[in-house]
Write a structure and sequence with these properties.
- It contains six helices and 16 strands.
- By secondary structure, the protein is α+β, with helices and mostly antiparallel strands.
- The chain has two domains: about 120 residues, 2-Layer Sandwich (Phosphorylase Kinase, domain 1), CATH 3.30.200.20; about 130 residues, ATP-grasp fold, B domain (D-amino Acid Aminotransferase, Chain A, domain 1, 2-Layer Sandwich).
- The strands form four sheets. Strands 8, 9, 12, 13, 14, 15 and 16 form a seven-stranded antiparallel sheet that branches. Strands 1-2-3-7-6 form a five-stranded antiparallel sheet. A two-stranded antiparallel ribbon has the order 4-5.
- Strand 1 and strand 2 form a beta hairpin.
- The chain is globular, with a radius of gyration of 19 Å.
- The two termini are about 20 Å apart.
- The N terminus is likely disordered.
Amino acid sequence: MAMMSFNQSAVIETNLPIGKPIRGKVRDCYRLDVSDEPHMLIVSTDRVSAFDWVLPTPIPGKGKVLTTVSKFWFDWLSEQSPPVSHHLVTTNVDEMGLPSTIDLEPLRGRSMLVKAASVIPFECVVRGWLAGSGLLEYQKAGTVCGIPLPPDLHPGDRLPCSIFTPATKATEGHDENVSFGTMAESLGDVLASELREKSIAVYDAAIGLAVEKGIVLADTKFEWGHDSDGQLMLVDEVLTPDSSRFWPAELACKGEVPESFDKQFVRDWLASSGWDRMSTPPPLPPEIVDGTRQKYLDVCQRLTGSLPC
């Protein structure tokens, strides 16, 4: 893969003078009121997480890739028929009405102004190819998240159809795969069924566009929430290298799991490093940082046709 030019120092965290940030593993979020409506400012930092740990080494420019790719998909979903409702208002910091005391330059390219939402506490995971934890379970039991699959599938194969495998959304510790029935018991049958239907529909539409760009979208996770009027909408990031598994289309379905355009590169290095996943993670070596960065830039270039500013 050719090296791409993209000079960017790492943004590890923000501390803007607009209230205490709500820090996730990767994003710093701030509550805002815009035109008397509740909004959030979401800043994607260059932190990277794996195995439910924030790693000590950032990936420079990663937050800009996540924002650029999310905006690409949110814009595309808005143009579908029917359009998919989502929370993004703008990624242009000059249009966000932020106080003049804030230096906008570090926020450019990595910030989203979004409508505030009541987030549903489940990850809506959709899988279309056999990989990751799903592959390990299939090899042991012939199932993925308890869903029986045909007995003759190989690593990296396309599944007979896209499957919905929800997980709890943990604020601390590990997300946990759960059955659809468990999700329905918590949310009610109507909402759980709507989330499953909409998540699979968005995923199946997205894999068609991704293939046109030379990419297999092997799996992904969505987050949904309700706006102030109670309407369901996509929230957080969408179809990014942090939330999805991307493969080069030319390497897919050849009896093995291809190398990914995402942070699987980091996970693989950590898995081979001897780290016990119970203590502070080791720093990432420079070649892993650069390799991960290049993978993120590659998928961004392929999907959007450009690199982040």
